[in-house]
Specification:
The protein is of the alpha+beta class. The chain contains 11 helices and 12 strands. Strand 5 (177-190) and strand 6 (193-200) form a beta hairpin.
């Protein structure tokens, strides 16, 4: 005769492998026990911490709560966010193979894995993760340089989707720490950092907050209307381009402001059209170091003129001389002979 413990484990296997909702009578028949004994086995599973749910009604039955069908995937909020973002990033980078099973509907291995992960996560966490992935905007990929706490990230994303105010504790770059209430409009990833585009209710103006500088965030009761035609990614990029740095580089570039802006990495340069018949734009960009600027500007496909700072002009001259020396002597230049 089968021992009760073995039947309890067999019951768990049936609940994991079968349809989501199982009738008590069917389970009792499968285990060759009466319904009273079957209910005792279900109670034993609950005593062991297995989340067995009962559904009443004509079409009722028992089932395992979401999040337990695959015990190895009982993830914390932070782990779930990391896995889902990893799948999204790998898919966008083309690093995942295509689906090898017909039960994955055209989305590839990444979409199939994400769908399976959603099925085994608690419903409340799935809602928060979906809110993050739905509205997430990535302007430029880069290696990780600072990640926000998972709870902060999920709260910001969910509040954005639900148009709910958020109270957060924020530390500025100068170390000043304050409590803010904001209306979140979008989560943006730019060069490895996470930003929140939001309206600071204390001043009624749009602000950009680095989410790794938020120590806690709490969604509040209420709702708000988003500014019309607001693009959170564009707002974050413009905000970053206006951030003061050690050096301010100013130059004139041939082309319209829109054309010239597209020649630079996102969020790096601000351009404005000049009242010039030749069609030039003035470009301003900021940098902590000027060493990389000559190489960047040398790659521009149009004429440009450096207006400042003087240190950059000197750096350009030195770079030009170094490049000329790298070519070696020329036979058609007096005083030089081929080697």
């Amino acid at each position: 005769m089968t021992r009760p413990t073995a039947r309890v484990l067999a019951l768990l296997e049936l609940l994991q492998a079968g349809p989501r909702l199982r009738r008590v009578g069917d389970l009792a028949e499968r285990l060759d026990v009466d319904e009273r004994t079957l209910r005792r086995y279900l109670a034993h599973l609950q005593d062991l911490g297995v989340p067995v749910e009962s559904v009443r009604g004509r079409h009722g039955g028992v089932r395992l709560a979401p999040g337990y069908r695959m015990p190895p995937l009982m993830l914390t909020d932070g782990e779930a966010v990391a896995v889902m973002l990893g799948l999204v990033a790998a898919r966008r980078a083309g690093l995942l193979p295509p689906a090898v099973s017909d039960d994955v509907a055209g989305g590839g291995a990444a979409d199939g894995a994400a769908a399976k992960l959603r099925r085994v996560l608690p419903a409340a966490l799935v809602h928060r993760v979906d809110a993050l992935l739905t509205d997430l905007q990535v302007t430029a990929p880069a290696g990780p340089v600072g990640a926000p706490a998972a709870e902060v990230l999920l709260t910001a994303a969910t509040a954005t989707a639900e148009r709910r105010p958020v109270a957060l504790t924020y530390t500025r770059a100068d170390g000043d720490r304050s409590r803010r209430t904001v209306h979140p409009h979008g989560v943006v990833v730019h060069r490895g950092r996470w930003y929140l585009s939001a309206t600071d209710t204390a001043v009624g103006e749009l602000r950009t907050f680095r989410l790794d500088r938020v120590t806690d965030a709490t969604a509040l009761v209420g709702s708000f209307d988003a500014p019309p035609d607001l693009d959170p990614a564009a707002h974050v990029l413009e905000s970053l381009a206006r951030t003061p740095w050690r050096h301010e580089v100013v130059l004139r570039v041939r082309g319209t402001a829109d054309e010239v802006t597209a020649m630079f990495p996102a969020g790096l340069a601000l351009a404005e059209d000049l009242a010039d018949p030749g069609g030039w734009a003035r470009v301003t960009l900021r940098a902590d170091s000027l060493d990389w600027v000559p190489a960047l500007l040398a790659g521009l496909p149009v004429p440009f003129v450096v207006e400042g700072p003087e240190e950059l002009r000197e750096l350009f001259r030195a770079t030009a001389e170094r490049l000329a020396d790298a070519l070696g002597p020329r036979a058609d230049v007096p005083g030089h002979s081929p080697q």
